[in-house]
Amino acid sequence: MSSEPVPVSTSPAVETFSLVKLFGSFVAVDNLDLQVKRGSFFGFLGPNGAGKSTTIKMLTGLLAPTSGQLRVLGVDIIQHPMEVKRRIGVVPEDLNLFERLTGVEMLAFTGRMYGLTKPEIAQRSKELLELMELQDEPKKLIIEYSHGMKKKLSLACALIHRPEILFLDEPFEGVDAIASRTLKDLLSRLTARGLTVFLTSHVLEIVERLCSDIAIIAQGKLLAAGSLTELRKGIRLEDESNGPVSLEEYFIHVVGGTRIDSEQEVLQWLT
Question: Domains, the chain, ranges and CATH?
């Protein structure tokens, strides 16, 4: 792939203002004010049902907000959805691949949808398949891929048009250690070139290692946002003498979770 850096603007990659999403009487996203710097590796965290995927769907034009405003790359996605969609890449949690195609065919289809020329598609597809280590079985249908292979192909499809921001919903879920390492290395290189990555993941160790900034939501509300170093300064935990507060400890502290400190408290009927 080209080593030419993605142009970086000083305006935020993502901005939301009092963003609300209702499903009937259920409040999935509750007055969310969020700002993501361009070129950052942004981790968007929360427990199950917190509103993470709903937020991503609104930011990528798949869901309309109930109220509020949102801008992606400086553009109001409600007013100009196609302009935004041309400039972003998305790896949804459910992947949404056409499984009766081969990897080459899937990339060709995706490239055509983004208006790439046939020579561009051919060159970029070749490089992406090699990068993702998917080049050895060109006639293999996607339905025969492992889950990790599908994740890597979905990421290749999201990158083929050279987006300015990449939205990743649980990209490491169900991925083995080798595929996970490939994805982590690639994402780190892309952010170093100026690409913005907006990541949701329950694997907090990966988020802690990769992300420059994080935000935590629960029940649709924003609870914390900033760099992990900045956020750590605002809390004091009992075990801080053992070193810096981990992201896991901070996350549990913020969302109100509790730890079990005694083995006697764990399902006594099993012991």
Answer: 14-258 (3.40.50.300)
